[in-house]
Amino acid sequence: MGADESPGGEASVEPNKLRGDHFLDRRYWLGPLVIVGLIAVVVTALTIGSSVTDSLLPAMRKSQPVNFLREDIVKARTISPLRGRIVAIAESQLGYRTSPPTTYCNKFSAYWDSGLNNCGSANLNEEWCADFAAWVWQRAGVKVVYRYRHGDLNSSAVSFYEWGVAHRSWHPIGSGYRPRPGDVAVYGLNVAALFASHDAIVINYSPGRRGPDAVNGDGNRTGFSVVELARHEYRADLHGQNAGLISGYVSPV
């Protein structure tokens, strides 16, 4: 019987050698396994992050500055949860367009059951900047009564001015008020004629600027009748003579 043979004729293995071989095997497969695990964690995190972005801003156009938009939401939330919700909901609709194109057929007026029923779909047809702003406020938690009475909100842009006066939250330009995220900016106001040309949701404001950063329903800068973002918007997001200057702000209550 040789020195390395067992009584049964089989080769014996030294215990220390066995443990060393297993250690070497474990070392060589453990490294790649850890790397694979780390890759899986990173991919999962990226997937979750993408899902959060998609759920928060599902209709955002690819060209919008996403980082700036997130900052707008964070800043608004530091003021109040309500204002944070208003900004997030308004920005979630960026890129929305009317259907059919080159009409005013839109889902926001349809939500309020306001407008002409000639779109060939569930949409209703009317100019809709105020319908959009009222929809955002209502979805965020502002108590909105939509009807055609003084002091209530409706499809008329001037209705936000009337609502602000009725709720003591109207702030005209020149009053010293600094606009806050979640306010509605009113443009081209003519109190005597009870008319305003446009409404937009304020998402941010920088001191010294002529106007706020705002999300516009029924905007016309990047297309016909879309939801779009304008920075430092001191003039209404409209074409033609009705593109009035900013007149004041209405705060949600």
Account of the 3D structure:
The chain has 253 residues and is α+β, with helices and mostly antiparallel strands. The protein has helices at residues 15-56, 66-79, 81-92, 107-111, 129-140, 158-166; strands at residues 105-106, 124-125, 170-172, 184-187, 198-204, 213-219, 226-230, 246-250. It has 2 domains: 12-56; 60-250, endopeptidase fold (from Nostoc punctiforme). Helix 2 (66-79) packs antiparallel against helix 3 (81-92) and helix 3 (81-92) crosses helix 5. The radius of gyration is 30 Å and the shape is globular. The model is unreliable at 1-30, 32-36 and 39-64 (pLDDT under 50).
Spell out the blueprint of helices and strands.
Blueprint lengths: L14 H42 L9 H14 L1 H12 L12 E2 H5 L12 E2 L3 H12 L17 H9 L3 E3 L11 E4 L10 E7 L8 E7 L6 E5 L15 E5 L3
